[in-house]
Amino acid sequence: MGKNSRERHKAKRKAAEATQRRRATGKLGPDDPLGLFGVPHVPSQRQSVEQIINQAIHAHDRKETAELDRCRALLTAGPGGAVGIQVVNRALLACLLREVEHAWRRGWQPAELVRVARREYTTQHSQIVVDAIAAQMRSYSRAAVDQRWQSQLTALDAQVWWEHDDHYVTAWGERESVDRVGMIATAIEVLHLLATLPPIEQVGPMPGAASSTTVTAPADLDQRLITRVRALLAKAESTDFPEEADAFTAKAQELMARHRIDHTLLVARTGARDQPATRRVSIDNPYEAPKTLLLQVVAEANSCRAVWMKRFGFTSIVGFPADLESTELLFTSLLVQATRAMTQAKPDVDKNGRNTTRSFRQSFLTAYASRIGERLSSATEEVDREMTASAGAANLLPVLAARDDAVQVAFEKQFPNLTQQATAANNRAGWASGRAAADRAALHGRQAVANE
Question: Which parts of the sequence are annotated with region: Disordered (predicted)?
Answer without folding.
Answer: 1-34
